[in-house]
Amino acid sequence: MNVSIKWTDGRQFLAESGSGHSVVMDGNPENGGRNTGPRPMEMMLMGLGGCTSFDVIQILEKARQQVTDCHAELTAERADTVPSVFTKIHVNFVVSGRNLKDAQVKRAVELSAEKYCSASLMLTAGGVEISHSYEVVDIAS
Protein backbone atom coordinates (compact mmCIF):
# COMPACT_ATOMS: atom_id res chain seq x y z
CA MET A 1 0.00 0.00 0.00
CA ASN A 2 1.30 3.44 -0.83
CA VAL A 3 0.12 7.04 -0.87
CA SER A 4 1.67 10.33 -1.83
CA ILE A 5 1.06 13.67 -0.20
CA LYS A 6 1.70 16.85 -2.20
CA TRP A 7 1.72 20.27 -0.62
CA THR A 8 -0.36 22.61 -2.78
CA ASP A 9 -0.35 25.88 -0.82
CA GLY A 10 -0.84 27.32 2.66
CA ARG A 11 -1.81 24.32 4.81
CA GLN A 12 -3.49 22.45 1.95
CA PHE A 13 -2.25 19.06 0.77
CA LEU A 14 -3.42 16.65 -1.91
CA ALA A 15 -3.29 13.02 -0.83
CA GLU A 16 -3.26 10.42 -3.60
CA SER A 17 -3.73 6.73 -2.94
CA GLY A 18 -2.00 3.92 -4.75
CA SER A 19 -5.42 2.87 -6.07
CA GLY A 20 -5.77 6.20 -7.87
CA HIS A 21 -8.05 8.18 -5.54
CA SER A 22 -7.39 11.69 -4.27
CA VAL A 23 -8.54 13.79 -1.34
CA VAL A 24 -7.70 17.34 -0.29
CA MET A 25 -6.62 17.89 3.32
CA ASP A 26 -6.44 21.35 4.80
CA GLY A 27 -5.95 23.19 8.07
CA ASN A 28 -8.22 25.62 9.81
CA PRO A 29 -7.93 29.33 8.97
CA GLU A 30 -6.35 30.16 12.36
CA ASN A 31 -3.34 28.04 11.36
CA GLY A 32 -2.95 29.22 7.77
CA GLY A 33 -5.47 26.87 6.18
CA ARG A 34 -8.49 27.70 4.03
CA ASN A 35 -10.79 24.93 5.29
CA THR A 36 -11.06 23.28 1.85
CA GLY A 37 -10.87 19.71 3.15
CA PRO A 38 -10.78 17.55 6.26
CA ARG A 39 -7.92 17.81 8.74
CA PRO A 40 -5.41 14.93 8.77
CA MET A 41 -6.65 13.74 12.20
CA GLU A 42 -10.23 13.77 10.90
CA MET A 43 -9.00 11.57 8.04
CA MET A 44 -7.61 9.12 10.59
CA LEU A 45 -10.95 9.02 12.39
CA MET A 46 -12.78 8.55 9.08
CA GLY A 47 -10.36 5.73 8.23
CA LEU A 48 -11.19 3.99 11.50
CA GLY A 49 -14.92 4.40 10.83
CA GLY A 50 -14.59 3.02 7.32
CA CYS A 51 -12.44 0.10 8.43
CA THR A 52 -14.73 -1.06 11.21
CA SER A 53 -17.92 -0.47 9.16
CA PHE A 54 -16.47 -2.57 6.33
CA ASP A 55 -15.87 -5.42 8.80
CA VAL A 56 -19.32 -5.21 10.40
CA ILE A 57 -21.11 -5.36 7.04
CA GLN A 58 -18.93 -8.20 5.78
CA ILE A 59 -19.45 -10.25 8.96
CA LEU A 60 -23.22 -9.68 8.92
CA GLU A 61 -23.47 -10.62 5.25
CA LYS A 62 -21.53 -13.84 5.90
CA ALA A 63 -24.00 -14.54 8.72
CA ARG A 64 -26.80 -14.14 6.15
CA GLN A 65 -28.28 -11.13 7.92
CA GLN A 66 -30.52 -8.95 5.73
CA VAL A 67 -28.79 -5.60 6.28
CA THR A 68 -30.26 -2.62 4.44
CA ASP A 69 -28.22 0.16 6.04
CA CYS A 70 -25.27 0.69 8.36
CA HIS A 71 -24.37 4.04 9.81
CA ALA A 72 -21.45 4.65 12.17
CA GLU A 73 -21.01 7.79 14.26
CA LEU A 74 -17.58 8.35 15.80
CA THR A 75 -16.69 10.83 18.53
CA ALA A 76 -13.15 11.38 19.70
CA GLU A 77 -11.26 13.13 22.46
CA ARG A 78 -7.71 14.35 22.02
CA ALA A 79 -4.93 15.19 24.46
CA ASP A 80 -4.70 18.83 25.51
CA THR A 81 -0.94 18.79 25.03
CA VAL A 82 1.27 18.40 21.97
CA PRO A 83 1.19 15.91 20.40
CA SER A 84 -2.59 16.12 20.49
CA VAL A 85 -3.16 12.39 20.04
CA PHE A 86 -6.50 10.64 20.31
CA THR A 87 -7.13 9.49 23.86
CA LYS A 88 -10.69 8.15 23.56
CA ILE A 89 -12.90 7.22 20.63
CA HIS A 90 -16.47 5.97 20.72
CA VAL A 91 -18.07 4.22 17.74
CA ASN A 92 -21.86 3.85 17.63
CA PHE A 93 -23.34 1.71 14.86
CA VAL A 94 -26.94 1.94 13.71
CA VAL A 95 -27.62 -1.20 11.68
CA SER A 96 -30.94 -1.49 9.85
CA GLY A 97 -32.42 -4.51 8.15
CA ARG A 98 -35.04 -7.23 8.06
CA ASN A 99 -35.19 -9.71 10.93
CA LEU A 100 -31.72 -8.79 12.17
CA LYS A 101 -30.56 -10.77 15.16
CA ASP A 102 -29.24 -8.57 17.96
CA ALA A 103 -26.68 -11.21 18.91
CA GLN A 104 -25.31 -11.27 15.34
CA VAL A 105 -24.89 -7.49 15.26
CA LYS A 106 -23.25 -7.50 18.68
CA ARG A 107 -20.85 -10.26 17.57
CA ALA A 108 -19.99 -8.44 14.33
CA VAL A 109 -19.11 -5.27 16.27
CA GLU A 110 -17.02 -7.29 18.76
CA LEU A 111 -15.17 -9.23 16.04
CA SER A 112 -14.32 -6.03 14.20
CA ALA A 113 -13.03 -4.39 17.39
CA GLU A 114 -11.11 -7.37 18.75
CA LYS A 115 -9.88 -9.21 15.67
CA TYR A 116 -10.35 -7.67 12.23
CA CYS A 117 -10.19 -3.87 12.15
CA SER A 118 -6.54 -3.02 11.57
CA ALA A 119 -7.09 0.66 12.29
CA SER A 120 -8.82 -0.05 15.60
CA LEU A 121 -6.20 -2.56 16.71
CA MET A 122 -3.36 -0.19 15.77
CA LEU A 123 -4.91 2.69 17.72
CA THR A 124 -5.65 0.60 20.82
CA ALA A 125 -2.09 -0.75 20.76
CA GLY A 126 -1.00 2.89 20.90
CA GLY A 127 -3.03 3.49 24.04
CA VAL A 128 -6.27 4.90 22.59
CA GLU A 129 -9.37 3.79 24.51
CA ILE A 130 -11.98 2.73 21.94
CA SER A 131 -15.52 1.88 22.97
CA HIS A 132 -18.40 0.61 20.85
CA SER A 133 -22.17 0.58 20.96
CA TYR A 134 -24.83 -0.42 18.49
CA GLU A 135 -28.51 -0.07 17.72
CA VAL A 136 -30.57 -2.46 15.61
CA VAL A 137 -33.41 -1.01 13.56
CA ASP A 138 -35.88 -3.57 12.21
CA ILE A 139 -37.30 -2.62 8.85
CA ALA A 140 -40.77 -4.02 8.24
CA SER A 141 -40.87 -6.60 5.46
From TrEMBL:
Q: Which InterPro entries does the record associate with it?
A: KH_dom-like_a/b, OsmC/Ohr_fam, OsmC/Ohrsf
Q: Which residues cross the membrane?
A: none
Q: State the residue spans of region: Disordered.
A: 18-37
Gene3D superfamilies in alphabetical order:
2.20.25.10, 3.30.300.20
Q: Which residues form a coiled coil?
A: none
Q: Which Pfam families match?
A: OsmC
The record's listing under PANTHER family reads: PROTEIN YHFA (PTHR34352)
Q: What is this protein called?
A: OsmC family protein
Give the originating organism: Cobetia crustatorum
* Classification of source organism: Bacteria, Pseudomonadati, Pseudomonadota, Gammaproteobacteria, Oceanospirillales
